[in-house]
């Protein structure tokens, strides 16, 4: 620093001791709420009330509205052409015997055709012959149903299929409705993501909730298929945003050490919501009432207007200091901690500095940077393929559950139950065995479980269901891994872009997969075999990716190109990730490993910096150091690292603000 600026530097150090760090290299480092959370409580009573009272219940409407239409579109096993002329003169069995030919393509010799009827003039026949003496003639001409259908309503008496006659040449319409739901997802993530960043979490959440309930109300009031399908697009706009927004608020308010726990609990509650949906659909078979029962209770969520806080991180980014302080002070009070008195001055000074400081010039990066170099291009392709396979097969299996077994409600319930233990086991394996092998094995074994169902006899309904449940459990585990694994593989410089690209390409599979499950109408096991091959392919592609546990994470695109460049087959065969020799610039899953090896260097750096600083500060400033100052000093060197955590964070802006991602 030039000599003529020395006095100016000393004066600034005295006036702004809480902002200017003792090292010149840290001069621009911003105050981080992660420094404050250990003082006011990382996961105290306030965060527990927030997580268990707001975040986790917010998962339930997402699961309800994502899967309730599977049961709205139930198709009765038996239906036949309606013949209006016979309605007032015959019973159902008589009408089928007289007007409906046998189904020659059915294995059941006594089955009646579902889509054809005899093309005769029943008015003339009834005028000439008594109904009790009429015998059908197999030589009569046939025609397609032109007056609608009659249905056997002994088991299924209400569905959109019955009300809108979605059978025969229109039997693909419910599948189109399911695809319409998934079309809305990427659009909603983009729109509510913009609102989330510009208007805040609270505004975005309640707008999303309003959209969800409006779409559900429109679903209940639908009078034809296209109105119903349009309502599902509106509902789809809010999935998964309706639970990601409060999830983001929770992640931003809990300490780093508890974010994995919040993530796993969120997945568990989402699954619990699906289990609850299975019970609701079993008890209520009327599709209109089902739509009401799976949406009206969530009007109570508007009571969150009085208790849901705005994210203080977002408030600080917007310069709304008083509101941010109010949230943080409430957090400290509820957690039983004293709020540091000097925080307000720190934040005021930081906001003033940020307004006056020239914006740093950031290097513009985009999608081409992911594919410019060979190794980055290969990893991007492999990550995207694995993501596509994982997300597509997971959701496809979720959709296909009711089609298997002897009871669709029990099958759907069990398909959700098996996810919970898989989450817990996966959480443990990720930090012991790394990411690559648990991801690959779960996808390969899950895919094989699907494929071998083709070897099971058609009559072995229960055995097919067991294989399906095994596959669903394994795919659920891989679904928990793919997100953090991808986030660790992409360099920090392009992480948001990379995750966004992979998740949106994966989202395209959600539009296609309903048409794969539709094939099960002709062959029950065909969709399982297709999804099994896709899962196995995705599992093998992920084996080529480098392991990230105990490895330094890439920061720049150049580092991303080098990371995993020396991949070998022997490395692929190594199942357990071994800790690497730590370095001062490394990033590890367990920072304690790094801390033990770097403590001496950090202490020397801090002592030297403290000695220089004390020579330039009056004693009054030195004595005013608070516990937060000490905590912050201990964390400064660590904050230069990019912490590698087994947590499914959403992508972030340059300011560290979390964003929505199309991830269900």
From TrEMBL:
> Could you tell me which residues belong to the region Disordered?
606-634
UniProt main location, coarse: membrane
The source organism is: Glossina fuscipes
Do you know which InterPro entries this protein is assigned to? MFS_dom, MFS_sugar_transport-like, MFS_trans_sf
Source organism's superkingdom?
Eukaryota
State what protein this is by name: Carcinine transporter
Write out the transmembrane intervals: 49-71, 172-193, 205-228, 234-254, 261-284, 380-397, 409-430, 437-459, 465-485, 497-520, 526-545
Q: Is Transmembrane helix there in the keyword field? A: yes
The GO terms this record gives for MF are:
transmembrane transporter activity
- Provide a GO CC annotation, any one: membrane
Kindly give the membrane topology term recorded for this protein. Multi-pass membrane protein
Pfam hit, one: Sugar_tr
């Amino acid at each position: 620093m030039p000599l003529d600026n020395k006095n100016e530097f000393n004066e600034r150090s005295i006036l702004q001791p809480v902002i200017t760090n003792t090292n010149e290299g840290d001069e621009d480092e911003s105050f981080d709420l992660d420094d404050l959370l250990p003082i006011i409580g990382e996961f105290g009573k306030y965060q527990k009330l927030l997580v268990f009272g707001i975040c986790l219940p917010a998962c339930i409407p997402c699961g309800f509205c994502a899967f309730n239409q599977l049961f709205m579109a139930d198709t009765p096993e038996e239906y036949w052409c309606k013949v209006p002329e016979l309605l007032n003169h015959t019973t159902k069995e008589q009408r089928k015997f007289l007007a409906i030919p046998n189904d020659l393509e059915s294995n059941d010799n006594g089955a009646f055709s579902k889509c054809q009827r005899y093309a005769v003039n029943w008015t003339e026949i009834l005028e000439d012959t008594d109904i009790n003496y009429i015998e059908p003639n197999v030589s009569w001409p046939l025609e397609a149903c032109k007056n609608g259908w009659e249905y056997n309503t002994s088991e299924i008496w209400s569905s959109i299929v019955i009300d809108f006659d979605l059978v025969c040449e229109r039997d693909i319409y419910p599948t189109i409705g399911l695809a319409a739901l998934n079309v809305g997802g990427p659009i909603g993530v983009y729109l509510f993501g913009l609102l989330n960043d510009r208007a805040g979490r609270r505004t975005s959440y309640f707008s999303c909730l309003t959209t969800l309930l409006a779409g559900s109300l429109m679903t209940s009031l639908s009078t034809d298929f296209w109105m119903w399908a349009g309502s599902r697009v509106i509902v789809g706009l809010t999935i998964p945003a309706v639970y990601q927004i409060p999830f983001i608020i929770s992640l931003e308010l809990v300490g780093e050490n508890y974010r994995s726990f919040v993530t796993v609990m969120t997945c568990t509650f989402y699954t619990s919501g699906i289990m609850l949906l299975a019970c609701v659909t079993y008890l209520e078979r009327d599709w209109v009432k089902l739509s009401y029962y799976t949406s009206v209770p969530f009007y109570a969520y508007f009571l969150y207007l009085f208790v849901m806080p705005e994210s203080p991180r977002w408030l600080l980014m917007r310069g709304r200091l008083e509101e941010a302080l109010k949230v943080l002070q409430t957090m400290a009070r509820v957690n039983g901690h004293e709020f540091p008195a000097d925080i307000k001055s720190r934040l005021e000074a930081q906001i003033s500095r940020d307004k006056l400081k020239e914006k740093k010039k950031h290097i513009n990066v985009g999608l081409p940077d992911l594919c410019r170099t060979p190794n980055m291009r290969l990893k991007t392709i492999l990550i995207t393929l694995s993501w596509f396979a994982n997300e597509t097969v997971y959701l496809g299996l979720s959709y296909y559950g009711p089609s298997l077994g002897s009871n669709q409600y029990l099958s759907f319930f069990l398909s959700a139950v098996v996810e919970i233990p898989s989450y817990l086991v996966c959480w443990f394996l990720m930090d012991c065995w790394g990411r690559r092998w648990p991801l690959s094995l779960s996808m390969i074994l899950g895919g094989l479980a699907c494929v071998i169902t083709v070897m099971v006899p058609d009559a072995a309904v229960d055995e097919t269901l067991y294989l399906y449940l095994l596959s669903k459990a394994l795919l659920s585990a891989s679904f928990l891994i793919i997100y953090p694994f991808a986030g660790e593989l992409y360099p920090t410089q392009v992480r948001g872009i990379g995750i966004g690209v992979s998740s949106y390409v994966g989202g395209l599979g959600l539009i296609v997969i309903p048409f794969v499950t539709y094939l099960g109408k002709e062959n029950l096991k065909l969709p399982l075999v297709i999804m099994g091959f896709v899962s196995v392919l995705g599992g093998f592609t992920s084996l080529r990716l480098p392991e990230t546990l105990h490895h330094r994470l890439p920061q720049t695109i150049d580092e991303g190109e080098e990371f995993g460049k020396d991949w070998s087959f022997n490395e692929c065969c190594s199942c357990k990730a071994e800790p690497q020799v730590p370095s001062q610039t490394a990033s590890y899953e367990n920072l304690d490993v790094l801390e033990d090896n770097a403590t001496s260097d950090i202490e020397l750096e801090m002592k030297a910096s403290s000695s220089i600083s004390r020579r330039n500060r009056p004693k009054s400033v030195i004595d005013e150091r608070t516990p937060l100052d000490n905590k912050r000093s201990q964390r400064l060197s660590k904050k230069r690292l990019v912490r590698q955590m087994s947590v499914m964070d959403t992508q972030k802006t340059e300011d560290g603000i979390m964003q929505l991602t199309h991830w269900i």
